[in-house]
Design goal:
alpha+beta, 3-stranded antiparallel sheet, 30% strand, 6 strands, 2 helices
């Protein structure tokens, strides 16, 4: 896995240079740690990333990830959740700016 500002890329193996897929941070709805999941998936120290696209919330996709140790799992969860918060804040700022730009009686001059 490689976490960038707006996405989480995943690879078939550490040796592969091309990503097998990409998870947009803005599509991640939650990160779950559930001991039953580790038992069910037969993977110790795993956690689940659940995505939900705004265009079609009924089509969520889950990714189950297993870490090498507890500290690594906690680190991944922390950075993914921090990226989710950043993505939310940027989106909220954009909505606020657009709301101001297009409010009645507000004139926006991009040259200023």
């Amino acid at each position: 896995f490689v976490l960038k500002e707006t996405s989480l890329s995943y690879y078939k193996s550490p040796k592969h240079l091309t990503a097998a897929g990409l998870i947009p941070i803005c599509d991640i709805s939650r990160v779950i740690v559930d001991p039953d999941l580790s038992k069910r998936e037969e993977m110790p120290l795993c956690f689940e990333i659940v995505t939900c696209k705004a265009a079609n919330p009924a089509k969520s996709i889950s990714y189950v990830i297993s870490a090498a140790n507890e500290a690594e799992r906690e680190d991944w969860i922390e950075v993914i959740e921090a990226a989710m918060c950043s993505s939310f804040e940027v989106g909220r700022l954009f909505v606020d700016v657009v709301g101001v730009r297009f409010s009645p009686g507000v004139h926006f001059d991009p040259k200023q």
